[in-house]
Recover the amino acids of this structure.
């Protein structure tokens, strides 16, 4: 790792060291958070086994909380289904006709370019090639100075 740092410019080394410091702080924060959660769980288990009447009250509150949470999740799912239905409606009634119109426009442009190629570009190219051949003919057999 020291050889890797020696190959860096001072700016790159400063950025590298700052990134390492940030990663260490993040890891320390995660470790502290995990320790705190485990401590809360251990304290809760000890307290609930020591006081069973509190445990029943906590259980009842937790059940009520879970029922309320399921109602909120159900409402969110209803909103999600409505949004998906409106997206499908948008795709069928607005985007599909736009794509069909774009396809028709591309086909029209393809036909126009083929028509111009056959009726304008090819004759001009042929005329230029004949003129070039005629010019070369006159250069070869024409006036010699």
């Amino acid at each position: 790792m020291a050889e890797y740092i020696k190959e860096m410019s001072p700016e790159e080394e400063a950025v590298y060291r700052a990134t390492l410091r940030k990663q260490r702080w993040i890891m320390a924060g995660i470790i502290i958070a995990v320790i705190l959660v485990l401590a809360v769980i251990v304290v809760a288990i000890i307290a609930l086994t020591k006081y069973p009447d509190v445990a029943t009250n906590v259980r009842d509150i937790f059940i009520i909380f879970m029922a309320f949470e399921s109602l909120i999740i159900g409402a969110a799912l209803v909103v999600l289904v409505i949004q998906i239905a409106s997206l499908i409606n948008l795709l069928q009634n607005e985007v599909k006709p736009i794509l069909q119109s774009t396809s028709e426009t591309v086909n029209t442009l393809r036909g126009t370019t083929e028509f111009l190629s056959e009726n304008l570009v090819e004759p001009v190219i042929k005329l230029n090639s004949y003129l070039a051949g005629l010019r070369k003919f006159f250069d070869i057999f024409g006036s010699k100075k």
Observations:
- The longest helix spans residues 52-141.
